[in-house]
Amino acid sequence: MADYPVTPLTPPLSEQEIIRRQKLQALLDAGQNPYEITTFPVTHHAKEIIDGADALMEQPVAIAGRMMSRRVMGKASFAHLLDGSGEIQFYATRDELGEENYKLFKQYDIGDILGITGTVFRTKTGEVTVHATAITLLTKSLKVLPEKFHGLVDTDLRYRQRYVDTIVNPEVRDTFRKRSAIISAVREFLDGRGYLEVDTPVLQTVEIGASARPFRTHHNALDIDMLLRIETELYLKRLIVGGFERVYEVGRIFRNEGMDATHNPEFTSVETYQAYANYHEIMEMVEQLYEFVAMKALGTTDVTYQGEIIHLKAPWKRITMADAVREACGIDWTQWQSDEEARAEMERRDIHVEKTATRGDCLEALFDEYVEKTLVQPTFIIDYPVEISPLAKRKPDNPRLTERFEFFITGHEMGNAFSELNDPIDQRRRFEEQMAARQAQGMKAEIDEDFVTALEYGMPPTGGLGFGLDRMVMLLTDSPTIRDVLLFPTMKPV
Asked: Domain 168-316+377-484 is in which class?
């Protein structure tokens, strides 16, 4: 048998990795295979012991986790064990374990997963510690963890090997625990308001005229091309037609687009729809949602993000898109007499728009250029042009605008909402215009005929909201990039 277990396909090994495999081989030769162990009777976790130390003094406990450090001092050793709740010190002695078992323990490596049984005590310095009476090697680690004092700092490697990142960087573990708490709080808030959580299809057959590009795949059994969804909106609104008055979905969305600090091709969105409500009521709900989630996750509505204190408590500022642009750069879009005049203004300002851009498109381009980055504190931008809001209801007093808002925090768009368009004739017309605009740019687009049919059966007045959950988590965990809040962000293969 080889000195250490390898196969012809084993990648090149470092000296330390060779030594670890040799130790594994020695265990196997002695009839001790750590990978055959299937269970260990854990009674306590690290945090539970530390928090309840006074009641647990001299009491037996059984813990399990990864050995993160060790100081061998002859006949005794101190080490730290990391489990799902945090780290705790344990104390191993030759007298308690026996000479052979203690010798075996000293052969274990940092990163090995151990089961420890023992009793709780405090050291002379007051540190809560488990005095080991037995140590079991549950899993042999064949890789060397990053150097303890510097941790895993290479960001590319951190994202590719998140399993190592979460071992050595406790603040990363904390971020993802907060992410879970944030998701739970969002659900608690919506459930408490009578919303029904639902699931809608990820694989779809119709490429609507939205601006996002889809990922494409093929269903072999049906022999049809399919698309990964770019939103959950149209199916959720079908449910409103079907009599469900309040629905929401926490779902994965897929968009075949670029990647930056706030964009990943695969992300999580929350969409909600409420019958008999308009965008004003949804604005109030957004304020209440953010207050509720912040208090649940952080215990405060004053959140520090990249050195700036963000005040999430209501009321948030409200301003129309037109007024925001006018204040920022002096342009009144209502003075443009034609789309050509609007495009000419964009050319004078060296702002790129498509050759088919409308006045509404140009207003949005000005907003993106001059306004968005300035919206640090929570702000609702309301009343968007109809050309860029194909699913929103027109304002009764100004049919060029829609009852739509987006909300912005830290200079980034955080969510989108509107009084939903429920006029099937107007909806079809807008779908046709959107489809024509995309086809003029050489892109494919179809009309979702089934959705139009659903509207023809009648959808009540409805307020809808969609927001990126990952961006909410970024804000509430003070994370500068979306990759910091995704356990496994999209990465180019090495």
From this structure: alpha beta
